[in-house]
Amino acid sequence: MRLNCFKFLVLFFLPFSMQSQTLDTLVDVGGYKMHFKIMKGEGTPILFDAGAGNDGSVWDNILEKIHTVTGTTLITYDRSGFGQSELNPNLTNDSDFGILNGIKELEIGLSMLGFDNEIILVPHSYGGFYTTLYASRHPNKVKYVVRIDANLIGVYTDDVLKIMEEEDTPPKTPETLGIYYLVKNYPETVKVLRKIDFPKNVPAIDIISPINRGYPDKYWTLIKKVHKDFVNTASNRVEIIAEGSGHYIFMDNPGLIINAIIKAYSE
After folding, report:
1. Do residues 153 and 126 touch, judged by C-beta distance below 8 A?
2. Are strands 119-123 and 74-77 parallel, antiparallel or unpaired?
3. Burial tier of 211 (Cβ tally within 10 Å: 0-12, 13-18, 19+)
4. Is the dihedral of CA 102, 107, 44, 82 positive or negative?
5. What span, in angstroms and rounded, lies between the C-alpha atoms of 237 and 202?
6. How far apart are CA 16 and CA 65, in angstroms?
7. Could you tell me if 242 and 258 are in contact, meaning their C-beta atoms sit under 8 angstroms apart?
């Protein structure tokens, strides 16, 4: 189903003066720490997963309004090597810092915080890989996914993978280790995700930007097709075209994203 105009109930007339109780914490996930920020509430928690190169702070502009309406717990975090999250000092090889390690760190952190049961996921961009992997490992716990221009593995063809494998990685410095490991392991991440199917029992809203960010026409056509195929695979998936918004839809059109998340939570 394609919706160009998001017709869900607009909730912005509500007063947003309520200040949430926020826990800003470092969680020990095995001798090193990951940074989580939690707006406490009641109900199924919502976990936000940022794109490549971003940390959890990228979501700050929409959290308070979502919390005011839903009253539920909202969770953001920094993947290891980003923001305030540390890298595992016991790992030595570049390949050790791939997405399988990252998802285990997330699972440990959520478990330590008591959020290892039912959950709603909101990924942006590269975060789509994380939520696909998480949902495949916990298909009965993930109750909804609101995808924001989020990665789908079908876009990463053999030709794309070959180009990625030939590209230079960012410099390996103490300040850039997070993005270095992400880029260095990206081809292997693609190979891992090719073996993973998004669970058909998990409902999803797939929100995409219609603005081509400089891709060749052939590749842009593929991107749009892959997203449409994802939605058409199951009846519990909806496609929304965020007209006028670029890749960071939650910044360009926060109302669209806030209402989508509220809709998912209400269902």
Report:
1. no
2. unpaired
3. middle
4. negative
5. 9
6. 6
7. no
Q: Give the tokens for residue 112.
A: 């330590």
Residue 118 one-letter amino acid? E
Contact between 206 and 241 (Cβ < 8 Å): no
| Structure confidence by residue, pLDDT tens digits, 46-67 | 999 999 999 999 999 999 999 9
The Cα angle at residue 39 between residues 35 and 44, in degrees rounded to 5: 105
What is the DSSP annotation of 117-171? SSEEEEEBTTHHHHHHHHHHH-TTTEEEEEEES---GGG--HHHHHHHHHSPPPP
Q: For residue 265, what is the enclosing H or E element?
A: helix 254-266
d(CA 110, CA 77): 10
For residue range 100-153, what is the model confidence (pLDDT) as tens digits? 999 999 999 999 999 999 999 999 999 999 999 999 999 999 999 999 999 999
Q: Is residue 258 packed enough to be buried (19+ CB in 10 Å), middle (13-18) or exposed (0-12)?
A: buried
Half-sphere exposure of 101 (CA within 13 A, CB side): 21
d(CA 146, CA 71): 18
